[in-house]
Amino acid sequence: MQPPVISIHKLNHYFGEGTLRKQVLFNINLEIQAGEIVIMTGPSGSGKTTLLTLMGGLRSAQEGSLKILNQEMCGANKRQLIEIRRNVGYIFQAHNLMTFLTAKQNVRMSLELHDEMINQDLDAKAIAMLKAVGLGDRVDYYPEKLSGGQKQRVAIARALISYPKIVLADEPTAALDKKSGRDVVEIMQKLVKEQGSTILLVTHDNRILDIADRILYMEDGCLVDKQLV
Amino acid sequence: MLPKWLRRTPLAWRQLLKEKTRLLVALAGIGFADMLIFVQLGLLDSLFDSATKSHQNLQADLVLINPQFQTLFYVKNFPRERLLQTLSYDGVVSVRSLYVDTAQWRSPETLLNRGILVWGIDPANPAFNFPEVNPYLDQLKQLDRVLFDRASRPEYGPIADLLQQGPLTAQVNDQTVQTIGLFTLGASFGADGNIITSDSTFLKLFPQRQPNQINVGLIQLQPGVDPQAVQAQLQAGLPNDVNVLTPEEFAQIEINYWESGGIGFIFGLGVVVGFIVGIVIVYQILYSDVSDHLPEYATLKAMGYSDRYLLTVLMQEALLLAALGFIPGFLLSLGLYQITYMATLLPIAMKLERAAFVLLLTIIMCSVSGAIAMRKLQSADPADVF
Q1: Contact A51, A24 (CB under 8 A)
Q2: Residue where one domain finishes, among candidates B202, B217, B245
Q3: Does residue B57 lie in a domain region?
Q4: Are B175 and B67 within one domain?
Q5: Can you give the residue ranges of the ABC3 transporter permease C-terminal domain (chain B) (predicted)?
Q6: CA A91, CA A188: separation in Å to the nearest integer?
Q7: B301 and B231 in one domain?
């Protein structure tokens, strides 16, 4: 058995300084194996997003142990954080595409991070990926000319094109209607299964819980593990 | 195969191009700032060029002047014998003397008086090397004959046109003189026009002037003699009621005079103002660009792009703006120079060094703005993207 891609042990996290210091994560323990699709739900303010940013190397971990792809994130330096970020795909609630780049260029930006890829035909790869998310006819569109669901699919293409080991998604369907939301999730599920990626998805959306292998429930900074029945 | 950096998406370029209106406003702003700097520098240069134009046409290896001499428009005299004394020094071949003073020229058209610079030369041994003057030297030997500078301001009357109908009678210092020909020197900030006369006519026009008190002594040296060595010998040997200068030092005295007056400061101030206006404009553009795209920059950081990469993008944007904004500024300035020349007859034209200097200033201007806008970029926190 391979080591888990995400391994969290007794993780605590605090916001603020001095007397204003407030604990937001309490004694989190979690292991996620390669290829798992995990959904994390829970009320607003329960610390889901904080945990996600810690796992993605967007914040420095403070206390306990947080290993991403065998890299200890507690006490990691800036360069190590950046290195982890390059191996993680992000999908955001707001699509966060570059408004001044076309769909194709947005997807390329993810590939250009990897020096070993720069000599390949990045445009062809980006177009192939956009075709995989059903946007083969929209490659040269700017985000402003795309619908919400289309933009989110570009974001998925951007997150998955470099075959990340881990995909972190925060409310990817929140801004979408039922049909587009379902489409987006199914594309995501299909692609990560093909690539063997692990996906951790934070959502309030009950309509998509069925794609998960495991559902985590978070409340007041504590994690409650529920196995799927 | 293209080099690596060319294969990357040109983020700075895309970002500038996406907002065409903003780009145009930015280029107009930078162009305007550049134009302001160009005009001020051009006027400053033309001030010095015009003030020293006559110096450049003097036939001299060394120049003798009164130590208190500051400008051609307020001349000081010194005894002619000092100039003659220099002939006894090794290396000195010949000497020439020059009288300079300001007279009143009455326009034959409007009958209004206007100050004009009068150069009194020895027709047998002229101080200037104007090829146009040489054919008239014999005629100049007669009393009350003058040559008129065709590049003088039009307020003196349409002298060049009137001369085509033959010699023209004019009034200088309330004395009647004959204008017999033209030469070209040019107006300056101090003199709107010039005339050349013989030394005898000069002394007649200025009765208070003594023949043995000259204004500028010109010394011609043997070819191959080191002017600096002779200069040192002369300065040491002559009484200290004269200064021995190279023509360059003589011109520098005139430049110093104008620089020390407020004029140099005023033009310098204009350059500084243009520079600051440029910084503010470019900063505004870059700052709003960064602010508008802050979530996108944060996303790039979250994807794994480093701070340094984003700073590079911002600097590229600043430099692109500098290069693109310089072009309209340069072209507009060419037009303004032409207009200024036609209005003032001051010698104002584009110079390669000035264009390079302004381009450099533009690059500095945009880099400074980029550096200030970077502070905003640091606030893009990848943890805020969710």
Answers
A1: no
A2: B245
A3: no
A4: yes
A5: 271-378
A6: 10
A7: no
Q: How confident is the model at residue B385 (pLDDT cuts 50, 70, 90)?
A: low
- Domain residues for B42? 9-51+262-384
For strands A71-72 and A63-68, give the pairing. Answer: antiparallel
Residue pair A187/A133 in contact (Cβ under 8 Å)? The answer is yes
Name the pairing type of β-strands A214-219 and A166-170.
unpaired
**For position A146, which CATH number holds?**
3.40.50.300
Range of A164's domain?
Answer: 36-59+87-227
Which residue, of B245, B279, B304, is where some domain finishes? Answer: B245
For residue A30, being part of any structural domain is answered with no
Q: What residue type is B55 in one-letter code?
A: H
Same-domain pairing of B238 and B182: yes
Taking the C-alpha atoms of residue B226 and residue A101, their distance in angstroms, rounded to an integer, is 67
pTM of the model: 0.75
Residue A138 included in any domain: yes
For residue B221, what are the β-bridge partners? B92
pLDDT value for B4: 63
What does the pLDDT average to over B137-165? 90
ipTM comes to 0.86
Is B251 inside a domain boundary?
A: no
Q: Is there a single domain that holds both residue B141 and residue B166? A: yes
Residues of chain A positioned with their CB less than 8 A from the CB of B383: 53, 58-59
Average pLDDT over every residue of B18-38: 89
Nearest CA of chain B to the CA of A101: how many Å? 7
B147 within 8 A of B136, measured Cβ to Cβ = yes
Please list every residue in chain A whose beta carbon sits closer than 8 Å to the beta carbon of residue B11.
Answer: 98, 101, 109
pLDDT digits (tens, 9 = 90+) for A46-65: 888 889 989 988 888 888 99
Structure tokens at A194: 């093909």
The pLDDT tens digits for B348-364 are 888 899 999 999 999 99
Q: Is residue A207 part of a domain?
A: yes
The number of folded domains in chain B is 2
In sequence order, what DSSP letters do the residues of A161-213 get, joined into one string? TT--SEEEEESTTTTS-HHHHHHHHHHHHHHHHHHT-EEEEE---GGGGGG-S
Average pLDDT (B247-271) is 86
Distance, in Å, from the CA atom of B214 to the CA atom of B209, rounded to the nearest integer, reads: 9
For A41, phi and psi rounded to 5 degrees? -125, 180
Domain-located, residue B317 = yes
Contact A113 B293 (CB under 8 A): no
CA distances from A82 to A71, A171, B67, B382 (A): 12, 23, 71, 11
Q: Which residues on B lie below 8 Å from A85 (Cβ)?
A: 301-304, 382
Closest residue by Cα to residue B216 from B51, B47, B54, B48: B54
Q: What DSSP designation does A70 have?
A: T
For chain A, the straight-line distance linking the first and the last C-alpha, in angstroms and rounded, comes to 24
Pick A119's closest partner by Cβ from B1, B18, B305.
B1
Q: Nearest residue on chain B to A102, judged by CA atoms?
A: B14
| Helices and strands in chain B: count of H runs, count of E runs | 14, 11
Q: What is the mean pLDDT of chain B?
A: 88
Q: How many structural domains is chain A composed of?
A: 1
Tokens 């994807």 sit at which residue? B303
**Helices and strands per DSSP (H, E), number in chain A:** 6, 10
Tell me, yes or no, whether B347 and B373 share the same domain.
yes
Residues B355 and B222 occupy one common structural domain? no
User: Is A13 inside any structural domain?
Assistant: no
